[in-house]
């Protein structure tokens, strides 16, 4: 007798990010994906896996009340109609949860970039300060200026992620969270160039060109500006501009000249998406490697930046 075919897992992300949605869509028909907005005010914590956890729990709290109300028939048809007008996406996700017998997963993620800044007590000393999205592009140029002044041509990206797996016992999810650290070693001469007005104008232009390229815009992803990403630093742009000497991923440092495409896909996935292998493996075993090896967008982005490296 043939075995019963497994239905797709319901995976919910508390994020409006198109890139993160497409990253999970790359897992194919093994999952059914749903999106909800994250909290308007994010948790401020240096442990980004806790920030990601807070996003997941925010979504769970939003959904729990409406799921219980629908399943216990506490919501009248009039209330459902009004709710659909005001919160149709939330209602649709709640209905999906019930159609999956209250078995689903919520996956949250957050990334921040740390750049060198001078310590006030001793001139020349620096510390790594975490930054979210810059308020303007002048702030991005100041990061380059500080790095050049301090002789510290590095920056770090921290990616925290969290997954909560729910069963009909809704209040007791199985939770896993993890943080990845990526250290990017830039060429001092590139940092000096980007700190100048001419060099920063060049960075802005190549940034615009990359994020408007067909490789990036696949799957209807919208073009972005430096103010749309943490610190305004784009690793794909730095690689394309031959500004990177080496990259460390989870303690493994590789010179860019020796990095293969698989390593580049893993690094770009970590900084641009932020779901760690530890978290993705909770969706299904092999999910991380499947994404790294098969996500067409990721493959095309790596091909784009390596093909357009200056000769």
What does this structure look like?
The structure is a single chain. With 311 residues, the protein is an alpha+beta fold. It contains 12 helices and 8 strands. Strands 1, 2, 3, 4, 5, 6, 7 and 8 form an 8-stranded mixed beta sheet that branches. Helix 4 packs across helix 5, helix 5 crosses helix 6 and helix 9 packs across helix 12. The mean pLDDT is 89.
In short:
Helix content is 44%, strand content 22%.
What is the percentage of strand-forming residues?
Answer: 15-25%
Mean pLDDT: 89
**Termini distance?**
60 Å
Unreliable stretches, pLDDT < 50, 5 or more residues?
Answer: none
DSSP strand tally: 8
User: Shape from CA axes?
Assistant: elongated
Structural class: alpha+beta
What is the N-to-C order of secondary-structure elements (H for helix, E for strand)?
EHEHHEEHEEHHHHEEHHHH
Helix content: 40-55%
Rg result: 21 Å
Q: How many DSSP helices?
A: 12
Largest β sheet strand count, sense and barrel closure:
8 strands, mixed
Topology:
Blueprint: E1 9-14, H1 18-25, E2 31-36, H2 48-71, H3 77-99, E3 104-118, E4 126-131, H4 137-150, E5 154-166, E6 174-186, H5 188-195, H6 197-211, H7 214-217, H8 235-240, E7 244-249, E8 252-255, H9 261-272, H10 277-280, H11 287-294, H12 296-307
Parallel strand pairs: 1-2, 1-3
Antiparallel strand pairs: 3-4, 3-5, 5-6, 6-7, 7-8
Helix pairs in contact: 2-3, 4-5, 5-6, 9-12
